[in-house]
């Protein structure tokens, strides 16, 4: 209901996109040619200003434009983590030179990005990272290890956080780099998850290099820049944004040289790792369990959470427009994890023993068994449930933070005292 | 391995039930419910006459009358029927401390009267600003000639309005930090400067705030060493974790099962299944409690097992009260005092009563802290 | 009133714990996936009498009672052993309880180590017994088809269809055919339900072991892993759920033991307590293994780490029969004397 109301103001935009596509869409172009044309017309990120490469439209316009492209049968504008996170970050904190150099290739899908934040010793406490960047003339030499980097093997650039100053407290000595991955000092190794897939990677940096010109937001200012990146990540996931990567940009994404018309037929990858109310309701009907009173209770609960999630996302967008919304985004993520877990559990309850079966023999190709196995991840990635609750407690309820004794101690000193412990 | 009570223990349990059938009259039961005061002089004296007050202790006039298992059975049966024993319970906690660290004078004054059911003592540790963090208390005791002057405020001093004394934790040394500098007293409640105000609670139980204004206390009322109050407190608190709570859950489950039988609904599959879930929780709660008792009977200290038992049975009680209220439906809301009450109004009462159980005698959070340290080996925060 | 293990029981637990720690480490468990059967481990367990112990003395076994079997099952569960100990023991006890020559012959074959039998935990529907535990590796399965207990040979091709599954357990769908019945009528149903009591009890015990191992591993990790310069176990957000899990695991273990004790003395609450133990152990294992994955953070989600081994099995093992809810229903029917629908 809400979607229809929202779409009406966009009827003009819908028509405009279709008109443009009528004129410009040519399935015989290559994907990279097509994406350059699309970006040039400002369709990749239409909510950005014209100077920034957009069309100065509303936030909602991006989704409307993509839907119109798909409706027309045209290949959608490029996706990817660069568009979701790196571009907005660079637009907020970068110099005009950096913006002019780094953002257009994101908008025209020529470059793929990944995130290089978490480390084996720094997950929830991201500010405790130890990847070291040492100044060497007009470049930085970087050594360390990153983990949980999805799409690293298909990326050209990484949003890299490294410590550029060990003599100040931990939050103050971090810098955000636009880091090129194709160099000898970089090794990418896939990680196998409980689902059997390998979406995430470890990235080893051994005296890799990065130009000082690619340091975004100023040396030592990386933590503030990261907050921007994380904000865009949260509002992307928490708003139920499905498969942010599709279609894959960059030379390693496998799209660029293809015929645009063929690529347009690709479907968004089966995002069935996270199931929702519609999937489970359908399953209940198919298995004749819709009349089971306990199943109905759980279905109703799942439906209620889904609605709450939608309304919370709308509220979050409204608050974000006013500059706030962080607590609401956290509530959104918590609601999402609840939905993911309840849907997986309910799917299993409906299927009974059949829910154990994996692979091709299984009901629906085993999506429910896979969802069961995937569901714990929802409470871990993108900020654990515990971190989200801390944010809600502090920002929304105004409760005091827990004490953090190392907050104002020079990070080098923190490391030295840790090394002395038994 | 053996999960059965021996025949003689079963016989003892029957003896206790017979005692209760006679001594716990409907009139007493009703008065306790209406006033919210868990105490009756006559009942306590009857208990004492059987040797059932402080029954596990050596006394001047004879050996213990109860072993640990019998004491547990007695306490469980008394708890089940909500006998008016809260004052006896707190008095026993304090008498135990006096027995171990009290002066000969205090021991002579209190212990014989305790065993006869002729003295009562309320607990005065908690303050408005200090509950779980009991070392943060601020009630001051200043030395004054042969005695002390006490100033401050105590909270949730249940039964102080009718007991003879209060077990009073004070700060005797304001320069000492936290556990150091505390002194324990047995404060006679008829001294000038003491004012008691009633506090009524969700469960209907009545408790009190006690205001202490320049109360002059003779040093003979000190329990244990000056600045040795923490040790006295620890002795008292080790009893707290072993109070049984599963009898409340047992009574609730039984009441609802009976209601289901009488309503002709016991064979309904969903209702049955839901009841069986709580019957299972009750089974687990009972076993955890028995384990802690069995350990104590053997002379072991159930450091983790006591908290596990308290945590599990009280949280189960809260959950059961909530779910079984819904199961029984709107009729569960009818108050015990209303003639149309269902299952004696027990369900409605427990819905209110249960909430206190996860707070007093050590909150669930405190219990989890202890379990985390003792059973999981996790470090303190 | 006694909650302790006697010397013999302690020795039993120690010997199985020792064998399994050497031959059923997480690496072994991984190696045996996806089938979930390690023949060398099964042989080693056979050699220490894991099948004989479950059979009454008068039928050629050692006559161990349910408590001893539960103690062993807990160790099997703790190591997630890729060996059909519970299935074989339950099948052997069932065969021993029947007065039929084919059953005796099958039991002898089991005791002689020549055959591995198993039992379907749910009745046959349309000629198929679905998801029979150990069905993928057993030589025969006892199934309940209507009111007949049949012994289905799994040697013939097409008799069984192994099923890839969440728990990496050797499950198979078994086509029943018309194998001669070992028992029929009320006697067959009684025998099946008694065997189900055994299976529920021992699976509950295994789940206690699994949950306990996952929990212990997580507590160790919570002591070591640091964030914001403190061990994660010092944060109440981590410590408190782990304290709840410790309490539940202890409670589940006590309940399993009580159920085993009651079944062993043929007490009137045996069926009720076995179902309660299964239900409570299932729920406890579900939460404890979730917490194990969660508190290991992202690492817990990888295949390389151990928590996922426990997480999947905590959900797979009980569900071949049903959800905790189903077990509460069974407990309720026993408790309130409603007849058991077949």
Would you kindly provide a written description of the structure presented here, covering whatever features stand out?
The complex is a heterotrimer of chains A (422), B (381) and C (342). Chain A is of the alpha+beta class and 422 residues long. Chain A has three domains: 2-77, no CATH class; 86-238, Butyryl-CoA Dehydrogenase, subunit A, domain 2, CATH 2.40.110; 277-396, Butyryl-CoA Dehydrogenase, subunit A, domain 3. Chain A has helices at residues 2-7, 11-24, 31-40, 61-72, 81-93, 96-107, 222-238, 260-263, 277-286, 293-321, 326-351, 367-378, 385-396, 411-420, and strands at residues 113-116, 132-136, 139-150, 157-163, 174-180, 186-190, 200-211, 215-216. In chain A, a hairpin with a 2-residue loop joins strand 2 (132-136) and strand 3. Chain A is globular. The model of chain A is unreliable at 1-6 and 237-243 (pLDDT under 50). Chain B has three domains: 7-84; 122-234, Butyryl-CoA Dehydrogenase, subunit A, domain 2, CATH 2.40.110.10; 241-374, Butyryl-CoA Dehydrogenase, subunit A, domain 3 (Up-down Bundle), CATH 1.20.140.10. Chain B is globular. The model of chain B has no long low-confidence stretch (mean pLDDT 94). Chain B is built from twelve helices and eight strands. Chain C has 342 residues and is α+β, with helices and mostly antiparallel strands. Chain C is built from twelve helices and nine strands. In chain C, the strands form three sheets. In chain C, strands 1-3-4-7 form a four-stranded mixed β-sheet. Chain C has a three-stranded antiparallel β-sheet with strand order 2-6-5, with no helix packed on it. A two-stranded antiparallel ribbon of chain C has the order 8-9. In chain C, helix 1 runs parallel beside helix 4 (66-78), helix 5 (85-97) packs antiparallel against helix 7 (186-224) and helix 9 packs antiparallel against helix 12 (324-335). The longest helix of chain C is centred in the middle third of the chain and has 39 residues, at 186-224. Classes of the chains: A alpha+beta (422), B alpha+beta (381), C alpha+beta (342). Chains B and C meet through helix 9, helix 10 and helix 12 of B and helix 7, helix 8, helix 9 and helix 12 of C.
What would a concise description of this structure say?
The complex is a heterotrimer of chains A (422), B (381) and C (342). Chain A is built from 14 helices and eight strands.
